[in-house]
């Protein structure tokens, strides 16, 4: 999976909500033992399209429409009149706290190319569970009024023009599981709480902003997310041995082009659920730990364009699910024959003798004359003695 792909979570949750909308409205509960005098089945009338929550939503959508400057697909053209549930991109469902009240549960304007800002009035959509604004041209930042969205489960604002610091209120949204901020212009530090157990995200996409992340605090490896994508972000510090702490949850880790200069600690081998590991385009040095061969779920490993050396451990190439082994652009001097059986393999630009597409003899000799890399207990490359 590339940093651009995304789990199916998003659509699944939306289907779930739509399903809820269809099923929930005051349906008679499925039998708690037949009672002698059965209460008459509640009529499954459609929910009233008017209530205070929808009135508030009406204000929110009208205020939002007012600050939309371009809408090339006319998605908001039908945002007129008080019945917001019929607006394009708006999904209503029975309120979780009151199944007899209709409320706005989802907004999906993906790929709308809409220009404008996210008005403060959005906070009026207090029951929103899903907000998908992927591939628009919203600028500014996320309004702090969104802190009222206590049910917000999926937030996807990827591929917009949003900027400023990480919106800190996001870390106190109690229901947030899927956070996608990638391809915007946010900057500054990603707060430790993004990875914290209180927020407990399932998926974090923060790549392609101008964020920086400190590995020194150890907060990243505290994460219980299954997907962490921080590509093209600046990570300061070394990959710590505590990376193994994410063993129970981590399935995909993308740290492509994050300026890390570090060793790869052997504890990485504890990540038995990890399927995709991308550490490419960094300054990882030293050897690839044999323990990667313990990562029994691993399907794709990309350590291309680093400073790794030594032998590619045979244990990796014997992994049963490995489909794609990318070690291009390092200084490996040995690759076991078992690696030739990996379906997709890129081992160009290394120093493997008598092997096609390797570095020049001069480059490899020059590398050999460098002092050997020693790794510290904290995962850092030790300075030469
Ligand atoms: C949107 O509406 C404008 C004005 O009504 C119209 O000219 C344009 O063709 C519409 N665009 C689309 C994609 O429907
Ligand atoms: C919403 O749209 C449906 C189908 O187009 C229509 O039957 C219904 O009257 C509309 N509801 C309101 C309140 O406008
Ligand atoms: C992160 O970015 C902010 C602002 O851009 C800067 O002040 C801070 O020093 C950076 N931190 C690191 C660890 O690079
Ligand atoms: C890691 O999580 C534990 C338990 O929730 C917490 O006590 C600790 O402060 C966290 N560490 C960091 C660096 O965030
Ligand atoms: C790495 O990220 C920087 C910005 O942080 C970007 O300019 C550069 O093109 C990226 N390099 C690769 C190989 O993706
Ligand atoms: C194998 O992985 C590399 C790096 O992640 C990727 O560029 C390449 O497209 C993958 N190959 C296939 C066939 O999936």
Automatic annotation (TrEMBL):
Asked if the keyword Nuclease belongs to this entry, the reply reads: no
- Keyword annotations for this protein? Cell wall, Glycoprotein, Hydroxylation, Leucine-rich repeat, Repeat, Secreted, Signal
* Family annotation (InterPro entries): Leu-rich_rpt (IPR001611), Leu-rich_rpt_typical-subtyp (IPR003591), LRR_dom_sf (IPR032675), LRR_extensin-like_regulator (IPR051582)
Cleaved signal peptide residues: 1-28
Q: Which domain of life is it from?
A: Eukaryota
Q: Give the subcellular location.
A: Secreted, Cell wall
Primary residence: secreted
Kindly give the Gene3D superfamilies that the UniProt entry links to this protein.
Ribonuclease Inhibitor
Pfam families attached to this UniProt entry: LRR_8
- PANTHER family with a match to the protein in the record: LEUCINE RICH REPEAT FAMILY PROTEIN, EXPRESSED (PTHR32093:SF152), LEUCINE-RICH REPEAT EXTENSIN-LIKE PROTEIN 3-RELATED (PTHR32093)
Q: What is this protein called?
A: Cell wall hydroxyproline-rich glycoprotein
